[in-house]
Design a protein that fits this description.
Length: 448
């Protein structure tokens, strides 16, 4: 940091955070752009992590705890100098302690600890915000942490800003900015640690704070990665709680403009209409937009899903890919006009577009929709679409010998039985035969 005196608390600065489950916390912080540096089991299990700017010591302990920690070459000397400045320690090491640790607090209760020894510990080389040219604040390519953005401060609520500033100056911190809007607050640093003092009742806990010019995109990506713990959020700012109970503020830099939120009704799609039904196409492009632009509730509404298990099944299908080389599909939802509800599906799966051939599939998803002729009506419409719009030459279908309703539907639609495929599909752990049917374009045209 430029124009700052040498830190007096120590040589390496970190945040110490306790957790009851080290691996769980490590997995969470990895999603935030942190990586493991080292770990050990002495004098207690711990893992040191960093995002290239901020150093965090995760420590195994059932009691929630956060401290601004300094690793010090000569910890007894530094502790003595602080006592001469009227700093009172709430914890001192015992003579037999192998690791010398001192603990004191700011006037507003933030834990500050000094730990003897710096062997193997290094201050991350990446710059915090006070080190960077302000022009780089608005260039995400310059951010060391590509997930969260710029580490800005350990935000600390205080009762009296002036009193707090004097305390932090006494322990080696220098104010780099002081503000009065929207309330009194200041940013201070000693060249290693960065704290934000906020005379505010907007929050009552310390929070690790990051800023980014592309905050909206970053939060969206974190949600796509299934990061949990989000609390309240506005368009450009978000707060989240870690598994061990600490807080992150993810704030926006500059003026990101809020885009017009996409509506489900705005997604373009092919719709086939019959007297009682709407067959609405689901292309890979539609599904990609759906699973990347909309929330779980909207996805369930659009697809007519009823349970979270059904949602997860569809999400897994999307992740694994609905389309492969030489093999694609045309999916249609069956919507009942009278109710607006999704009652089933009718599709061409195993669509071999190089050979103008596709396999017909269909099914109802609600008991209420059965015995109403919906599938017969949908099949007639999708056959017409397949031959006249997709240019198919052959539509084939398979049904189990026991599936009398499906056999009637296919024969009623003009399909011809070609034979039996032995052990063609697996149902409830048992391989069963399929009756193979087909309908050719010439037959469809001749039938009129």
């Amino acid at each position: 940091m430029n124009n700052l005196q040498k830190p007096i608390l120590g040589e390496v600065s970190a945040l110490t955070i306790t957790t009851h489950d080290l691996e769980m916390s490590l997995a969470f912080y990895r999603k935030l752009g942190f990586a493991e540096l080292m770990r050990a089991d002495f004098p207690f299990p711990w893992i040191q992590i960093s995002d290239g700017v901020l150093l965090i010591m995760l420590r195994q302990d059932e009691q929630p705890y956060l401290a601004l920690t300094y690793y010090v070459k000569n910890v007894e000397k530094v502790a003595k100098e602080l006592e001469q400045k009227q700093i009172s320690f709430i914890h001192k090491p015992k003579p037999k302690d192998m690791v010398k640790r001192y603990l004191f607090q700011s006037p507003d209760g933030l834990n500050i600890s000094l730990v003897g020894g710096v062997e193997g510990f290094r201050q991350p080389p990446g710059p915090g915000m006070p080190d960077m040219p302000q022009a780089d604040f608005f260039n995400p390519d310059k951010y060391v942490n590509k997930v969260c953005g710029l580490f800005g401060e350990l935000a600390h609520p205080v009762a009296d800003l002036e009193k707090s500033i004097q305390f932090w100056k006494m322990i080696g911190f220098t104010p780099v900015s002081i503000y009065t809007d929207p309330y009194p607050w200041a940013i201070l640093t000693d060249g290693l640690g960065i704290v934000g003092l906020h005379q505010s009742n907007h929050f009552n806990y310390p929070a690790i704070t990051y800023f980014a010019a592309d905050r909206v995109a970053k939060v969206k990506k974190l949600k796509q990665e299934r990061l949990t713990g989000f609390l309240d959020e506005s368009f450009s700012n978000a707060k989240l709680k870690t598994p061990e109970g600490q807080h992150f503020f993810l704030f926006s830099l500059g003026m990101e403009t809020e885009p017009v939120k996409k509506q489900l009704k705005d997604i373009p799609r092919t719709i086939i209409e019959t007297p009682r039904l709407l067959l609405k196409e689901l292309t890979p492009e539609i599904l990609h937009e759906l699973f990347t632009e909309f929330g779980d509730g909207e996805i369930m509404e659009f697809l007519g899903l009823r349970t979270l298990e059904e949602l997860e099944t569809e999400r897994n299908k999307f992740k694994k890919g609905y389309t492969t080389y030489r093999l694609s599909q045309k999916r249609f939802q069956i919507e009942e006009k009278a109710t607006g509800g999704i009652v089933g599906s009718c599709d061409f799966h195993n669509y071999y577009f190089l050979h103008n051939r596709a396999e017909l599939g269909y099914g109802l998803t609600t008991e209420e929709a059965k015995q109403k002729g919906f599938i017969t009506e949908a099949v007639k419409a999708i056959i017409k679409y397949g031959f006249e719009q997709m240019g198919l030459n052959r539509i084939e279908a398979f049904a189990g010998k026991w599936n009398i309703p499906s056999l009637k539907i296919l024969k009623g639609a003009g399909f011809k039985e070609e034979g039996v495929l032995r052990s063609h599909f697996l149902k409830n752990g048992v391989y069963e035969d399929s009756v193979c049917f087909s309908l050719l374009r010439d037959e469809y045209v001749a039938k009129g």
